[in-house]
Q: What sequence folds into this?
């Protein structure tokens, strides 16, 4: 019995340590998420209230946890021990435009690897803008459906 | 006539903010903030190692149930999942799109209502479709 108790104490301590590490990671994640959200709002010429930014960054962190579990499942299902780009694309299967934009991003990454970087970078900028504008299309339609406009 | 002046002051504001961002956040080719792959790797690793530990514990508790399936590969089975570098970059992009989409969609709603600030009600309205899309 004593040994068991000792073990559980050690395990508890480990878990507490784990949580503090994840707190640090979560804060770092939130900082990045906040700057992404604020930059995007500025790009749209909009102000954004702080609680909303915090809320979006929290959402994104929870989505990251979900994503990690999905990716692990997909990789294991394919009999692999490591996650590759296809797993990430499969995880974005719910929206065709999102999957398409990730596919073009994957092609850029693939193209960058074996060849020289300069030529590809110029081309990729145009692609980025094109995919960004494509992305908004399904959502306006979806929102109209939802809100009854 | 008043419009261009307003635009100018806005742009100055953006520059200041972007200067600050450069210290705290990684940038991509287009100078927009994005996630650092290392940070995402650390978060994923954290979740995966915890899952691997859980799997290990479950096997210790009921070794008979999984014995026939797992066989000799038990030690390999408990190794946490890993991700390759490009998969992480792609995950960063996916997460970045998640945030930018949330902001853009809320901004469109705010604009339609004639406001210039994104508030809670705007986020509430776009949230269901956003979560269905991701």
A:
């Amino acid at each position: 019995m004593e040994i068991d108790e000792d073990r559980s104490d050690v395990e508890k301590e480990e878990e507490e340590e784990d949580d503090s590490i994840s707190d640090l990671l979560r804060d770092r994640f939130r900082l990045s998420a906040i700057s992404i959200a604020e930059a995007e709002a500025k790009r749209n010429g909009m102000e954004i209230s702080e609680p909303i930014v915090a809320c979006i960054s929290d959402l994104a962190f929870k989505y990251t946890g979900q994503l990690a579990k999905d990716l692990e499942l997909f990789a294991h299902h394919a009999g692999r021990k490591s996650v590759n780009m296809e797993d990430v694309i499969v995880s974005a299967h719910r929206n065709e435009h999102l999957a398409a934009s990730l596919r073009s991003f994957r092609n850029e990454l693939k193209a960058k690897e074996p060849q020289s970087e300069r030529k590809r970078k110029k081309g990729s900028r145009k692609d980025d803008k094109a995919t960004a504008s494509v992305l908004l299309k399904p959502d306006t339609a979806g929102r109209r459906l939802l809100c009854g406009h | 006539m008043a419009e261009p002046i307003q635009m100018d002051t806005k742009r100055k504001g953006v520059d200041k903010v972007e200067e600050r961002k450069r210290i705290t956040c990684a940038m991509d080719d287009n100078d927009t903030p994005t996630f650092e792959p290392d940070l995402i790797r650390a978060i994923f690793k954290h979740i995966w190692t915890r899952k691997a530990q859980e799997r290990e514990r479950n096997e210790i508790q009921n070794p008979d149930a999984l014995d026939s399936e797992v066989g000799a590969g038990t030690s390999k089975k408990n190794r946490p999942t890993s991700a390759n570098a490009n998969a992480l970059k792609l995950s960063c992009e996916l997460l970045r799109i998640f945030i930018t989409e949330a902001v853009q969609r809320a901004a469109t709603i705010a604009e339609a209502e004639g406001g210039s600030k994104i508030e809670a009600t705007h986020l509430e309205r776009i949230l269901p479709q956003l979560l269905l899309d991701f």
